[in-house]
Amino acid sequence: MPSLILISQDSPRQVFELGRATLIVGRDDTSTIFVSDVSVSRNHASIVFESEEFVVHDNGSTNGTYVNGERVSRHVLQHHDIISFGSCLFLLDMGSTRKGPRGTEVMTVKHVGSKDGKVVEISPKPVMGQPVKPLKLILSSSKVRRTSSKPPPPPTAR
């Protein structure tokens, strides 16, 4: 089942399952996904199931909705997108790797440091003994940047 996973450092991990019904993200008590954070508007965004895809719509929020660091008003969501409502970060999990044998979790999220922004590492646990490279995110005050663990390309001669 597709879900949103709250990955903000200051909040306990929460998982919100996505279905075919429209979900409202916001600070209002009637929100489907209630977020108690002043950076989130009362009716911040909607997640809608349209044409077999999940689409996030910003509902005119003050601090905006970001997907992978880009401000969006409407965006078709993909597996492992990082969605920011105000300063609250969510990871979209389309359900393909969330649970392993006997319901064990196969993904961990941890805070690994701060310098120019918070650094969060999302790392799938080894699957059948095969290691999987982690994804590191550098969280600044308003943007999310992905960094990979790949080494930089070698210099080229001119």
Task: Offer a quick outline of the entry.
With 158 residues, the protein is mainly β.
Please mark out the parts with pLDDT under 50 across 5 or more consecutive residues, or reply none. 97-106
Major sheet attributes? 6 strands, antiparallel
Percent helix:
under 10%
- End-to-end separation: 51 Å
Shape: globular
> If you compute it from the alpha carbons, what radius of gyration comes out, rounded to the nearest whole angstrom?
17 Å
Mean pLDDT score: 74
Number of strands: 15
Q: What does it look like?
A:
Mean pLDDT is 74; it is low at 97-106. By secondary structure, the chain is mainly β. The termini are far apart. It has strands at residues 3-6, 14-17, 23-26, 33-34, 45-50, 53-58, 65-67, 70-72, 74-76, 82-85, 88-93, 107-114, 118-124, 135-139, 144-147. 21% of the residues are buried. It is globular and about 30 Å long. The strands form three sheets. The protein has a six-stranded antiparallel β-sheet, with no helix packed on it.
